[in-house]
Write a structure and sequence with these properties.
alpha/beta, Amidase signature (AS) enzymes, eleven-stranded mixed beta sheet, binds the ligand CCCCCCCC/C=C\CCCCCCCC(=O)NCC(=O)O
Amino acid sequence: MENIKRQQVLGFTGGVLFVILINNFWRWKKKQNVLKKIKSKSVECKRAFDYVVEQLKKGNLSEDEVSQIVQLSFNDLHQQLQDGTLKAVTVLQAYQAFALKANERLNAITEPLVTAMDIAEKLDKQTGKKGLLHGIPVSVKESFDIKSLDTTAGISHFIGKPRPDDAALIKVLKDEGAIPFVRTNIPQTMMIYECSNPIYKETLNPYDLTKTPGGSTGGESALLGAKASIIGYGSDIGGSIRVPSHFCGCYGLKTTLERLSRKGTLSLSKGQMQVSGTVGPMARDLDGLIMAFKVLLTDLHFELDPSIPPIKFRDEIYNSKQSLKIGYYVTDGYTPAVPSCRRAVMLTKKALEAMGHTVVEFKPPRMVYAYTKLYLGTVMGDKGKNYTSKLKGDIIDPTIWKLMLPSKLPNFILRMMSWLYPILTKDKVFGDILKARMGINSVHDWFNHALKIQAYKEEFLSAWRREDLDAVICPPFAMAAPPLGKVADVISAGNYSMIYNLLNYPGGVLPVTKVTADDVNDLDNYPTNTRTLKLVKQFSMKSEGLPVGVQCVCLPFNEELVLRLMREAENGLNKLQD
Ligand SMILES: CCCCCCCC/C=C\CCCCCCCC(=O)NCC(=O)O
């Protein structure tokens, strides 16, 4: 009897050990597979880098010539390509050389496009009318499809699935004579304001290599900030164009949903239609940004994607001289802007007043509710499955671990944490953030949730109309670029951007100032009553010299007014400096 029992126990234990062994072996095998895929991808990318390096050796541009070309403003470069003073091949070689050099420091490029030189050579032979972007090298976020290359968003699941065609916007750009010359890095899943993934690794901020360039369009912002590209394109479902532009001192425009085609761009949340990602241009200067937007609004674009309303660039709005009434704010009621970001808004207010506009304080309604219940409630409505399902068996980048964790916890734990956390830390909002991470239970609840978003949109619009506003200025993020790997801890600082994805208002970011020693000293008075605020303050202590931007927001489909406001702000800022 004893023997039988012992045999049963041994048999059971052996069985369990066997299952564990098989399971571990299975996991190990899967990981090896992932590593193999990543390896083959890096070999493929290295081949592209080597090819371009070899091509560059055949060119004969001196360092001085390269530097002269990349220093040209957008308008000067555009003019010289249009009148033939500069050849497309020469400009491409200069940008390739400069970008590859900057990339050694920043790791912003996922792969150079080997087709670029052929395009440039053809353009130089062309005799007819030149396109609006004739010969302008353009960088593009990795999430835009390029024919016969993978689009991965840093997720190994997407390796080895070359795309059948170029994204619609890439076709429009090529039709206007632009030369897509590099693809740029993104964070794994594209759902964080950092720029790191296991395939292409981590991108750094050109102003301070210990800081993040932001994300998810972080490769773009790093390259533009380093002057290694002149215009580029990205996407934004929660600030991914605006926040990296702010962190790296460049210009970015998040458009209204359906102003520009997203055909052939990757987003992991396309089935979720309440808050959708949009695409938009980024640039080194404002003229570049305006042209990078304007050039897309063509018949070809509307033909390639008939769901886009055929609204061409409205010069009458952009050129209007009518004085504007603009609202401003520097707190969302949870994460107030740090002194540098507050100063940037106040400086812009002064600049706009100097240009003859009226700027008044605006208090957007219930911004914390909009962030926790509505924005997070929506993007995490499926408890993050859209994202986690594509990450099964993948290597998870350390920068997104903390954001991913709540999606892995059972709801009763999340509920318990959402009760306990506010008691222990006095941070009630964080309790709501955890609740939002529990997802939405039923289709009925999802419908009701959609109604709440609709009601909030009405409430926000009423507040806007009560003040009779044409536009709003505010920070894009509560602080300047945080240190690498720390964004998950201060993700709420992005509410300043996320809210305009919820509302579907267009927003542009322009660089306004840099963090000064006084800004850092003024952090003494920054509140520290929650963990998030303590970290915002701590991460801002070593931020002197980092760029600081301001966000300009208008009502849906008013991109031209956003651009006008950015222009007026920039002119006003220059006027104040004189
Ligand atoms: C990593 C897996 C789970 C996703 C975690 C999402 C957690 C939600 C928390 C924070 C709010 C979202 C931050 C938004 C970051 C910017 C995203 C963006 O604009 N992406 C562009 C795009 O997807 O095209």
